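re: ur question from earlier - yeah i can do the single chain one, its not a big deal. heres the input i used so u can compare w yours
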Amino acid sequence: MNEKYPIGEFQFDGEITNIIINEWINEIEDLPRLLKNTVIDLNNEQLDTSYRSGGWTVRQVIHHLADSHMNAYIRLKLAITEENPVIKPYDEKEWAELYDYNLPIEISLSLIEALHKRWCSLLRDLSPTDMERTFKHPESGSISIGKNIGIYAWHGKHHLAHITSLCKRKDW
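and the output i got, formated as tokens:
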């Protein structure tokens, strides 16, 4: 198994249908529960273990998910309310070194739970036309809301797999 990409990299070149969108939204909606159930019994030593050599710790992954998904939510709102807005990327590696990534995971778990409720509520209210709206990432180009939903459904599963595969390898 590839420890960096335990579920593979995001790939989707097909037609983004309502069925696929709903599956992706369900995956985003399920992440807070799955994440909490996976990490709730881990101790500080386990939380401060890297999921792979040179990778983030479990604690950093959890805080990263909160930061990344907050950015996704804001990008969604920008794409809904503006015409192909240019979004500001951030340096996730630098953010992972900031002090708040040392805080208890419960803070980010609560944030992720609340954020995903709002995010999924908004996503479920979008029309098929809304799904085609885009934002422009300076490095990746224009991305539709529909595709971005898929990216973030994958993103949550990707990082959850980092944690679950570590737990399995360590027999936690």
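The mean pLDDT is 97. not sure if urs matches, ping me
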